[in-house]
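Quick one - first record:
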Amino acid sequence: MGVSLFGLVVVFWAASQMVPAQSAVFEATRLEGTANPDLNGIWQALNTANWNIEPHAARAGLATVDGPTGEVPAAAVLALGAIAAVPGGSGVVEGGAIPYQTWALEQRQENRANVLTRDPEVKCFMPGVPRATYMPYPFQIVQSTNKILVVYEFASASRTIHLDTVGPSPVNAWMGHSVGRWEGDTLVVDVTDQVEDTWFDRAGNFHSDELKVTERYTPMTPDHLQYEAIIEDPNVFTRPWTISMPLYRHKEANAQLTEFKCVEFVEELVYGHLRKEQLVRRWEGDLGLLGQRLIIDVTRTLPDELR
């Protein structure tokens, strides 16, 4: 008795539905001589969290003023045009909003209005944790059995994650004090003793010196880590809150960190007033027929208390 083509299709389809789904479980490569995942490599976050860790729309610039139909770039960034604009993003804060105390929310708004003079990134200060993780620069993990060195491109910052027993940090530091442990395949790092001078982003989100960050690095694929950080600071926030994001491994053949010691690039900004002759005085550019010419004069003045 013959079997039609249609009948064969039906039989094969029915058989396929009876086969249980096979879900592939990722098994991370182990660091030689240990049972722990090998996290060695150059990694980078691909998001807009360094502009603002909360959900945000695109803006005309980091610094803006009110225009007739909305925000327009402030004078300090006007000549940069679209280069100075802020890209929008869905944010990395779980739940969307940071749970600030009332006074702290007001402080954040003041920080945001003065970002060009207050954001520590502008002055090339070391970014602290967790901000160093999601700045738009790669970072490298160098892992051994009892120490993990994390080297960041921005400002040549670095920190050591201690997997062995160490004493408390003697002082607060820009990159804090990191003590790690393994929970299964997840590296858990408690970061304490950070200075209060770092921010979370370019949007004025800040903390005090009571900040504690609990990081979790979990391998998801050979080239993808899931990063999570629980933020605690009873001086600034009403409760702990969490950020999370994927980190991706650089795969190019010549992947490496390049030097970005930006301190020397901000010497004129920070210390230019100490020169006998001010170097940066005036910028004049032709924006084309419709934009005409733009002239920016730079004048330095001392605060009244220093005169």
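second record:
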Amino acid sequence: MSPEELRILPKVLLHDHLDGGLRPQTILELAEIGGYDRLPSRDLDELTDWFFQGRSASLERYLEAFAHTVGVMQTAAAIERVAYEATEDLAAQGVVYAEMRMAPSLCTDRELNRTDAIAAMLAGMSRGEAEFGLPVRLIVDAMRQDSDSSEVARAAVEFAGEGVVGFDLAGPEAGYSALEHRRACEIALEGGLHLTIHAGEGDGVQSIVGAMEVGAERLGHGVRLVEDIDVVAGEAETLGPVAQTVLDTGLTLEICPTSNLHTGVFPDARSHPLGLLHRAGFTVTISTDNRLMSRISPTDEFAFAVEHHGFDVQDLELVTMRAIDAAFCDQGTKDRVAATVMAGYAPAGAE
């Protein structure tokens, strides 16, 4: 499949960080407007290159770049612009439904509180949806290394049914178990939100266990689940107890392949378990994680699956339909998106 054929295929993103997808030009402009003077460069090309974290080789190093994106997202106008532009950029890549996520606490260094930040994100997404026809919903993140997760969950619940559909724990996994944030997860679930937890990316199988114990319906990444699988000749032969539970329950994996390479989870594209997990029957979906830091698009991630893991049009349609099933939106939205996906794949499948 050519890049253009892949670009126009309908895509559903479940894992895309708002503060990881800014346009470099927007960063420069927002820094100028807001008086943010800590950017590593004021030259567009140099700044674009600096933000690329493909050589970071660790999650912690990769996350350092976010200091500057959140640094320019400290006003409602800035946040709304970023959310609007993200919707525009995803629509141009054939995305027909997206769930974007961000931690509102990161936007409270100046005049905003958490609810102000969430409202601004939703305003930008709503404006983008109206203009570009892309349904976008918000997952509110709490940072697992911080102690305010319950307060974040309460702020998120205020917007349940108004664009916020889920709650997540993000940030470094190692040393910060999801179990430490059990109460926050309970608040989110009791308030009508769905739960997805970053797990099995920066830490191993025990991170996945912790996410399941607090009620996760989806795993952000989840790729280190392969550590609980006996692999022979590139295929899953015997599943350990955690992998078997994930398979049996259909727990959704929000896989972001390029990001996993850039954070050093896997050394190269062939060693990534995307194809292995998909062929073994796990509920695999494909997303982008951080489009700025990994210099990636939804089309690029589809190309990764095709080039390195043998996906064909039917595989891409399957993971897209699985993403719709796992989406946190209402059933009416799911039905409309599913119809769009099936219509978009029908011509490709007939070739």
